[in-house]
Write a structure and sequence with these properties.
Layout (H helix, E strand, L loop, with lengths): L6 E2 L9 E8 L6 E8 L3 E5 L6 E2 L1 E4 L5 E5 L24 E7 L5 E7 L3 H15 L13 H11 L46 H6 L5 H17 L8 H15 L2 H18 L8 E5 L6 H4 L6 E6 L2 E2 L6 H15 L1 E8 L5 E7 L12 E4 L5 H9 L9 E2 L2 E4 L2 E4 L5 E2 L11 E9 L2 E10 L11 E3 L2 E3 L2 E3 L5 E3 L5
Antiparallel strand pairs: 1-5, 2-3, 2-9, 3-4, 4-6, 7-8, 8-9, 10-11, 10-15, 11-12, 11-13, 13-14, 16-19, 17-18, 17-20, 20-21, 22-25, 23-24
Helix pairs in contact: 4-5
């Protein structure tokens, strides 16, 4: 149980099973509060921080306790809040709950949110082992150097949970609408700052040309820790378990969070700062040294909106842009683009001379396509889907409590109608990021909804006899309305 009076934290005895930051739901306040958690052989102890000696509470865990994953956005159980308390913010991603006896009279549910999926899995695995009377997994393998580094960063007040340390969260929210982490520069003549672009993720640093050995070691250590913490889900196929592990790796190396922040920044630029009639690619990182991009002065927040005197149209791909550059280099030895800078509000004509004998030379800039303002046409264009989609099928999942299990039928027509038999069928959804699809680990009703607030995509198949085979485009958009 959680004690109501502060007590000193016990630091003697065996080392803790696990320790780190979690965001806990307050029983009396209904608020999500960032706490430093220490799991011992008797239960959870939490404080305000790793150096705080004043214990704020304690949860005793025994064989009667339970540890369960919680679906983002779901309602909390009645025994998680006092009668007078109200939930101040919805359940976020990477949340689990521990149900345990409370002062000898009934049970209480304690909701806690981790910073990422591997961290959530690690906590749940260790708490479940304690409930089942199993020895701690802490001695199963040598200490992970990255985890130790994260603990040290937490002790110094730099946060924990991933590279680029996550800030303290007062109230976790679903990850479906990620927001930029900080503000960018204020544009000329404006009052509101531009949204900030995310810096390179851990994976990008490790794999970039000239990436240093420390970044590579961090990347490898993170991948090993993620694979060690991952447990096979018996309800999923080997292929889906492999996909789940890949998504965890993407999350823990910062790629998923990086992509979600980038998507939010691009949408904000399009909705609030893009001049009417423009489309194209915006530069998101400073050009690398020695590249054509640096030589010709490309800058972050430069929007390439015109190529060889022709305005770019919504839906123009990076491949088409690259082909236009290669053709211009081959035909006349130069390539011209016009850019609009979101910061200065000015426009520049940039003519790039082809390096001698190199018609396939790259500009060396990192850019992303601005999203379409027309969501319906954006969905079809991004997926490459046109015409009839009545022969497309998806794999369905049934929601059972806090879990999603493979549906028995498992082949549902994408454009099928809502019926009483399929109202509880869900699908895994993806979001379009330029020419890529980003998986967020979310599920969405296949038929039982009225209107989407943004384009969502699903993996699709066609039927060949009794088999589902993928052909042509791998993804298709869910209908914007049903």
């Amino acid at each position: 149980m959680f004690a109501s009076m502060p007590m000193p934290v016990i630091t003697t005895g065996p080392p803790p099973r696990r320790q780190g930051w979690l965001t806990k739901l307050g029983f009396n306040s209904g608020k999500w509060q960032r706490r430093w958690m220490v799991l011992t052989d008797s239960g959870l102890v939490y404080t305000a921080g790793p150096n705080d000696k004043g214990e704020k509470g304690r949860l005793f865990i025994d064989s009667s306790s339970r540890c369960e994953f919680v679906v983002p956005g779901s309602e909390v159980t009645a025994n998680a809040l006092s009668p007078a308390a109200r939930l101040k913010a919805p359940v976020g991603e990477f949340t689990f709950k521990v149900t345990s006896s409370w002062k000898g009279s009934g049970v209480r549910a304690f909701y806690m949110t981790a910073d990422n999926q591997p961290d959530c899995d690690g906590w749940m695995n260790e708490i479940t082992a304690l409930i089942q009377g199993q020895p701690s997994k802490r001695g199963a393998a040598p200490a992970d150097p990255l985890a130790s580094a994260m603990a040290m960063m937490g002790a110094m007040g730099m946060g924990a949970g991933g590279m680029g340390a996550a800030p303290a969260r007062a109230a976790p929210a679903p990850a479906a609408h990620a927001a930029p982490a900080s503000a960018g520069p204020v544009p000329a003549g404006g009052s509101r700052p531009l949204p900030a672009f995310p810096g390179p993720s851990m994976a990008q640093k490790a794999t970039a040309p000239g990436g240093n050995m420390l970044d590579m070691m961090k990347m490898a250590s993170t991948a090993m820790a993620t694979m060690k913490a991952h447990q096979q889900d018996p309800h999923l196929s080997a292929q889906d378990n492999a996909i789940m592990l890949a998504q965890k790796l993407q999350t823990n190396t910062g790629m998923e969070g990086h992509d979600q922040q980038l998507i939010a920044t691009l949408k904000d630029l399009t909705d609030n700062f893009l001049p009417a009639g423009m489309a194209g690619f915006v530069v998101t990182e400073p050009p690398a040294k020695g590249t054509l991009g640096e030589q010709y002065g490309f800058q972050v927040y430069d929007l390439i909106f015109e190529v060889e005197g022709t305005p770019l149209q919504p839906g123009c791909s990076l491949q088409e842009f690259g082909n236009a550059k290669a053709n211009a280099f081959a035909q006349k030895g130069s390539f011209s683009v016009r850019v609009h800078n979101f910061v200065t509000g000015g426009q520049r004509l940039i003519t790039i001379l082809m390096p001698p004998g190199k018609p396939n030379a790259v500009l060396g800039i990192v850019s992303s396509q601005l999203p379409h303002t027309d969501q319906a046409s954006a969905a079809a264009a991004a997926a490459g889907m046109t015409g009839d989609m009545s022969d497309l099928y998806v794999k369905g999942w049934l929601k059972s409590g806090a879990m999603y299990i493979s549906a028995g039928q498992n082949a549902y027509p994408l454009m099928g109608p809502l019926t009483s038999e399929n109202e509880n069928v869900y699908v895994k959804v993806f979001r379009s990021h330029g020419s890529m699809m980003v998986g967020t680990g979310e599920y969405h009703p296949l038929y039982n909804y009225h209107q989407l607030s943004e384009p969502l995509f699903v993996e699709v198949w066609r039927m060949m006899g009794s088999m589902m085979v993928q052909s042509g485009n791998k993804y298709a958009p869910l209908p914007m309305s049903r």
